[in-house]
Structure formats: structure tokens, C-alpha cells
Specification:
Length: 668
């Protein structure tokens, strides 16, 4: 069977789960054999292995660790075991799928071929739990081997006997391959394993207690046969460094290290302190912040895998980190419900805290606005106070304070308006009565005409309005010329030509003055006509031009954005159209028809009737039966100039009762 993967760009994805499906589903696979020494191995579970997501993730982490340690065969075997466990899962786990892709990419970058994974898959036996120890190097085989089977004889013609282990004849022993640490026998902690003691020493070292750490590390060294080779080497390094710092005994004298070795040792110690500190913090905050701990452990593993360290040192650190990750994943799996509940509770608490902070902030803003509101109310600035009250309502619409502030400011404003109106009514009534009293004051001949207040301002505004009306329709340049004609000029000309006088005035005022030869010829004036005018003080340009031109029948006008000098007759003919509103002066003209009730005839008839009624109403009360003067019958003759005729001629017609206006009556 062959295994293929597809490489697309920088992304590599394994096709092993699909291709190894038939092979991994069978239980009759060869047993996978690691070349290991007879060291103690402690499994996570007993012979019955439970295949779940943690089982698969553990083998994937083991495959990654072995690949980074350049143990490609063991990495391929661990990856094949993880794929078989993934096949046996009831449903797809996103975390498992993601981790499979990551490890597959790593193995592809480490030049692990499909053939290696194929071969490892064929050697798999029954599912086995992840060992806590890493594969150890193969110990050399002794020269003489006793064959345990009864097939054939050796080349030495030695009789074949059954191999039986006799402890009394076993002279082998474990010896460290490097510096031997002198550890005196210590009192052991009951029930504590070598791994537990090592972790306790790491915690003591992270706290800065080097003496306690050295004591615990010495106790852990008593269980060196149970420790993983990587942990045993790390423990040996720590014991060596701690004893060297305290002047402890060593079998081999220390050799002076080179600067490069010292730098490497310092870097290794720094990374080891950081890794152990992070693992200790992870155990401390496991229950309170499980998600954060998981994230930080993954970040730590990425940093350690990318660190510029020796391969063996990096592998030891990765082993520690992977073990911490596996333990934390197991903890999260066992306490998933509690973690989810705690996460939800924390979110609710955060929301409540945020709401409380927002409420406190709003309350502070409302308190500041209330102070501003009180200051404005004291100053009787009720409109501004009402605006501030509305701002309080915008911050907290359901607040009782906002309702009270708005109502108070509104009532105060309305009361103020009512008081102002009542005061204005009283002042208006008093002013009206005073005007009545002032009208009864007689006027003397010395001051027969009294102008109202502000009459001068009204007159100036009326004149300015007339001037604006006169300039209506002009361009901006023409209006500027009229404005410049108010400039003061000094007139001192003695028998100078008119053209030279115009040029001098133009230079003094900045106005373009043009002589109209045709217009001036109508008055018998030419450009070389001599002008003589000497004034002792400056006058306006407009007045100077009038003095110079009017005496010769000339005048000036502003046209086409220049000041033109021409005949006065031309300027008189230059009329300007001005539109006035005369709609109030227009009355409808009646239609002239043949009857005498409309048109001019109807108007005359109505005039006669009005005059007759007026005379009858005025003569009867005064000159009737109540009068002592004799009175004859009066008659009204429309053809007479005198409408009231009385007998005897002794009664004079009162003023206002004379005849009709000329042309209305029929008489002379």
C-alpha cells in the first residue's frame, strides 16, 4: 500500500486517513516495535485503552515532538497511531482535524515520506496508550547471546539451554554517560514519584528558593530509574548547576567554559526558567482561566519550537510543554460543563460591570448638568436652563430628575413671559394716557412745528434710499465712479485747455474722464478751450466739474463705466427708467353704457343726490321751527350757483353750504 499527499503552494495536506482506511480498520496489523532499553514505563491508562479526542491529540503531539527531535521513524509510527484513533472516533472533532493538518505539514517539512508512514502503519498492533517516556537509544547487544529457542546450535557447539533470568548473576547496572552527580541518601516523601518531585522542584525554582529546589531535585534523583530520559537529563543538569553554585562535590572537576558555551548555558537556563514558570502559572490559573491557559501554552510551545537552542535541549522543553498541554486538555475535557458555565458567568459579570460603569458616568454627567441648571436658574436665564434640562432628559429619559428640571424651567420661563407681557401692557396703557394729556398741551408760535424723535435719522435713511434708487441699474464700476466723485480736489487752473484740466482731475481721483467732442461742439466748446478756475480750498470733484462745465453749457454723466463730458442737452435727454408701485392709485374704469345710472352720467347724478341730502340734513335743525328768525320756504335749484335761497335775504348762508364746485351746476 502506498500513501500520497498533495502539495499545493505552501499548504500540504495528508491523504493518509483516506488511503489507510481499509488498513487501519482491521485489527490484524503487525505490532509496532520501538528500539528501547528496559526502562520503566508509566502509561496514562491500563491495558484497556479508551480511544477519544485526547488519545488522538496525545499521539499527534508525540509525533510532532519526535519529528522536531529528528526521530523520523518514531514520528511516523506515532502519526499512524493517531490516524488509526481518528478513524475510530464516532464523529469528526474540529480540534483533531486542525491538529492533524498541522502535524502533517510539519512531517512533510521534515522530509517524512508516505512510505515511512505506510511501513509504520503495517507494524501497528492493538491500540496503546501514549507512553510518558520518549524512545531511548538502542543499547549495544552483548557479544554472547543465549538463544532461548531449541532450534539449532551455536557456532561454539554450546548446548542449548532454556534462558532463565538469575538476579544473582546479573552484574549490569545503570551508569550516567556524563558527569556523575553525588547525591546523598535523603528522606523520601511517602507516595511521591520521581515526576512529582521533579515538578515540585521546578515550582520551588520558579519561586526563587534554590535550596528547597535542590533538596527536592535530590529526592527526585533517587527515582532516576523511573524518569523519562529527557526529564532525567534535565534533572541532572539542574542538580549540576545548583551544586556548582553551592560548591557541591562532583566526580569530574569542572572545566572552564568558553564564552560561547557560557552564552549557550545562559540562554538555555533562561528558556528553562521561562518554560517552568509558564507551566507553574498554568497550574495556578487552570481553574480560574482555563481558556487563557490553553492559549498561553500553545504560544509557549510555538516559541520553544522556534527558539535557537540545541536539539536535545529544545526537545526536553517541548516534552515538558506537551505534557502540560496534554494534562490541561484532559482537565478541560473532564470539566467542560463547569468551564462553559464559568465563561458564561464571567461574560454576564463583565456586562453588569460595564453597565454599572456607564451608569456612574451618566450620573456624573447629570450631576454636572444639574449644577449648570441651578446657576442658570439663579441668573433667570430660563431658556438656557430648559435646554440644559433637555440634555439631562437625553442622557436618562426615564429619570425623574429630568422631568422635574424640564417642568421647573418651563414654568419659570412662562411666568417670566407673563410678567413681561403684563408689564408691557401697563407701560403701554400709561404711555397712551400720557399721549392724551400731551395732546392737550397748546402750541406756541415760537415752536409751531415739532418733529418727532428720530426725525433726522429717518430723513437720512430716506435720502440714502433715494440715492440707492438713483443708482439702481448701474454696474459696480459706475457706482464706484459716483462714490469717487465725492473726493476732495484742489482746483487751481489758469488758462489751461479743457483736455488738460480733465486729465489732471482724472489723475487726482483715478476716474476715467472722456470728452465728447460732438456733444461739446453743440455748445461751441472744443478740447482746447481755456479754463480758468482758482479756489482757495478743496471741494468735491462733483462740485468742481459743475463749476467748470455748467458755465459753458456742458455737463457730465456716468455712462459705459466712464465719466463723459458732453452737452447739457444730451444729459437732459438721458432719461432713466424707474419702476414705481402705483397699484394703490389705480381704480377700475366703469363701462360707459347708454343709461344714466352708470358711467359719467351716473357719477354726476350720485353727486347731486349726495349734496342735496347734506343740505337737507344741515338746514332743517338750525333754521327750522325752533329758530327766532323768519324763514321762507327754501328751494334748491340745481342750475343756480347758490343752492340755499332764503326769503328777504336776511339770512346768510353758513360757511360750507355754498354752491357746487364750478362746472357741476347748470347756472353761471
Amino acid at each position: 500500500m502506498k500513501v500520497h499527499w498533495t502539495i499545493s503552494g505552501r499548504r500540504r495536506s495528508w491523504l493518509i486517513p483516506t488511503l489507510l482506511g481499509p488498513l487501519l480498520s482491521t485489527g490484524q496489523l503487525a505490532t509496532c516495535v520501538f528500539s528501547q532499553t528496559t526502562s520503566a514505563t508509566r502509561n496514562i491508562s491500563d491495558d484497556t485503552v479508551i480511544v477519544d479526542s485526547q488519545f488522538v491529540l496525545g499521539w499527534l503531539n508525540q509525533a510532532q515532538s519526535l519529528a522536531e527531535a529528528q526521530q523520523m521513524d518514531g514520528s511516523a509510527s506515532a502519526f499512524a497511531e493517531a490516524l488509526r484513533g481518528r478513524k475510530q472516533l464516532g464523529s469528526a472533532d474540529p480540534s483533531v482535524e486542525k491538529r492533524v493538518n498541522e502535524v502533517a505539514t510539519l512531517l512533510a517539512s521534515k522530509k517524512v515520506t508516505p512510505a515511512q508512514v505506510n511501513q509504520a502503519a503495517k507494524l501497528l498492533g492493538k491500540p496503546r496508550a501514549l507512553p510518558l517516556t520518549a524512545p531511548s537509544p538502542v543499547m549495544p547487544t552483548p557479544a554472547e547471546v543465549v538463544v532461548a529457542s531449541g532450534v539449532g546450535q551455536s557456532s561454539m557447539s554450546t548446548p542449548v539451554v532454556q534462558g532463565v533470568f538469575q538476579p544473582s548473576q546479573d552484574a549490569t547496572q545503570l551508569r550516567p554517560a556524563s558527569t556523575v552527580v553525588d547525591v546523598a541518601p535523603l528522606n523520601q516523601t511517602p507516595g511521591a514519584s520521581g515526576d512529582d518531585l521533579y515538578q515540585r522542584g521546578i515550582e520551588q525554582l520558579s519561586k526563587g528558593d534554590r535550596q528547597a529546589a535542590l533538596t527536592v531535585f535530590k529526592q527526585a534523583w533517587q527515582h532516576q530509574g523511573e524518569l523519562d530520559p529527557a526529564i532525567r537529563n534535565a534533572l541532572k543538569d539542574k542538580l549540576t548547576s545548583l551544586q556548582a553554585a553551592q560548591g557541591g562535590p562532583e566526580s569530574i572537576p569542572a572545566v572552564a567554559a568558553t564564552p560561547e558555551q557560557q552564552a549557550e548555558l545562559a540562554e538555555r537556563q533562561r528558556w528553562m526558567s521561562e518554560v517552568t514558570g509558564e507551566i507553574s502559572d498554568a497550574k495556578t490559573f487552570r481553574e480560574s482561566e482555563p481558556l487563557l491557559v490553553a492559549e498561553r501554552l500553545q504560544i509557549l510551545r510555538t516559541r520553544v519550537s522556534q527558539a535557537d537552542l540545541n536539539g536535545d535541549v529544545r526537545q526536553r522543553m517541548l516534552t515538558l510543554v506537551d505534557r502540560a498541554i496534554t494534562e490541561h486538555q484532559i482537565y478541560m475535557t473532564q470539566n467542560r460543563a463547569a468551564i462553559d458555565q464559568n465563561t458564561k458567568n464571567r461574560q454576564i459579570k463583565d456586562e453588569i460591570s460595564l453597565e454599572q460603569e456607564q451608569k456612574v458616568k451618566v450620573d456624573q454627567q447629570i450631576a454636572s448638568l444639574v449644577e449648570t441648571y441651578n446657576d442658570l436658574m439663579d441668573k433667570q436665564e430660563f431658556m438656557q436652563a430648559e435646554t440644559v434640562a433637555k440634555q439631562v432628559g437625553a442622557l436618562d429619559p426615564d429619570s425623574t430628575i429630568a422631568s422635574l428640571l424640564i417642568a421647573g424651567a418651563r414654568n419659570a420661563r412662562r411666568i417670566g413671559e407673563y410678567e413681561a407681557i403684563r408689564t408691557a401692557k401697563e407701560d403701554g396703557f400709561v404711555d397712551a394716557m400720557l399721549d392724551v394729556d400731551r395732546s392737550a398741551r397748546p402750541m406756541s408760535d415760537e415752536n409751531s412745528v415739532q418733529f418727532p424723535e428720530g426725525w433726522t435719522d429717518k430723513k437720512e435713511r430716506r435720502l440714502a434710499s433715494q440715492e440707492r434708487e438713483s443708482q439702481r441699474g448701474m454696474s459696480s464700476a459706475e457706482a464706484a465712479i459716483w462714490e469717487k466723485m465725492k473726493q476732495m480736489v484742489q482746483v487751481n487752473f489758469k488758462e489751461q485747455p479743457l483736455s488738460e484740466v480733465a486729465r489732471t482731475l482724472a489723475d487726482m481721483t483715478g476716474i476715467m474722464i472722456v470728452l465728447d467732442d460732438v456733444g461739446m461742439s453743440l455748445e461751441g466748446v472744443r478740447p482746447d478751450t481755456l479754463i480758468t478756475l482758482d479756489l482757495p480750498s478743496p471741494i468735491q470733484l462733483r462740485s468742481a466739474l459743475s463749476l467748470i462745465l455748467n458755465s459753458r453749457g456742458l455737463d457730465f454723466q456716468v455712462v459705459n463705466e466712464v465719466l463723459r463730458v458732453t452737452s447739457a442737452r444730451n444729459t437732459a435727454q438721458a432719461n432713466r427708467q424707474v419702476v414705481y408701485n402705483v397699484k394703490d392709485l389705480v381704480i377700475p374704469i366703469p363701462n360707459f353704457i347708454t343709461d344714466y345710472n352708470s358711467g359719467m352720467a351716473g357719477a354726476l347724478r350720485q353727486a347731486y343726490e349726495t349734496i342735496n341730502n347734506s343740505l337737507a340734513a344741515r338746514t332743517q335743525p338750525r333754521y327750522g321751527m325752533h329758530s327766532d328768525l323768519p324763514m321762507s320756504e327754501g328751494s334748491i335749484n340745481p342750475d343756480s350757483t347758490v343752492l340755499g335761497q332764503f326769503g328777504g335775504g336776511n339770512v346768510q348762508v353758513p360757511p360750507g353750504l355754498g354752491g357746487l364746485p364750478p362746472g357741476i351746476g347748470g347756472g353761471g
